[in-house]
Amino acid sequence: MSKRKVGVLVMSYGTPESMDQIEAYYTHIRRGHPPTPEQLDELKQRYEAIVGGFFPLRKNTDRQVAALQETLNREHPDIEFVCYQGLKHASPFIEDGVEQMVKDGITEAVGVVLAPHYSTMSVGAYNKRAKEKGEELGLSIRFVDSYHLHPKLLKALTQRVENALGKFGDVPKDDIRVIFTAHSLPARILEMNDPYVDQLMETSRAIADRAGLSNWQFGWQSAGQTATPWLGPDILDTLETIHKEEQVKNVLLCPIGFVSDHLEVLYDIDIECRQTAEQLGMHLERTESLNTDPLYMETLSDVVYTELERK
Questions:
Q1: CA–CA separation, 293 vs 308, rounded Å?
Q2: 126 assigned to a ligand binding site
Q3: Engineering a disulfide at 109: which of 64, 82, 141, 174 sits with its beta carbon 3.0 to 4.6 angstroms away?
Q4: Has 142 been labeled as part of a binding site?
Q5: Is 13 known to sit in a ligand binding site?
Q6: pLDDT single digits (tens) 200-224
Q7: Domains of the chain
């Protein structure tokens, strides 16, 4: 008897595969409006600073998708899971992933985004695109909305906080300010009863409880450059504020909104935040990204399987 076959659409923001793809990528983010030469140059400089000609970022997502497929098939041997990528701003786009599933004869599918926290503007938008393409092609897809309090995710993140606290040597834990961060979104989500902020705070509190943290707060990073206000204050401003007003000298950044090493971690934190901390005379560290941590892969496997079997 042949195994039940299930397609899993693994969605993420996407990143270019090489320096020469940056302009097309940036144009897609800007809804078809090409960036100015200055904007393009600035983004290229950011990628150049972290990759130096070698472009590992897409490989991170490729490895996550492969590891999830392996985990699903190991944990549920009675089902054949096949994972497909769907990217928001790069090829293969979300619609391409859905189309490929249909071409491969998939009749049962689950969509999951490589982001634990739900917002209508992020995860909701990914799911909407996949759902619409699925309806157009006659494929019904079920979706995981969020998994921000999954015990294995919390365990993986707590371990990272505990490990990183060790980088401060003999400094007492209570003298280290832990700042959980996530990607800012346009502030109008606050008027939409969007769960994004609440879910991020719930994750932060859960990790703080598990790691026994009393000295922690939340910070926003990587806001878009648009005319509308974004959630803030920005992490760079936060670092200056806590240094000036509270004389904080030791800071651990824990970017819980990001699940792999991408521009927002490797540039916005590892370069920009570190430079700011250096200028302020602060000792700054960050937690390691989840990438293909088995606990994270098991989290994704659990939520995909749970959604598949939900009546």
A1: 23
A2: yes
A3: 141
A4: no
A5: yes
A6: 999 999 999 999 999 999 999 999 8
A7: 4-147+292-309 (3.40.50.1400), 151-286 (3.40.50.1400)
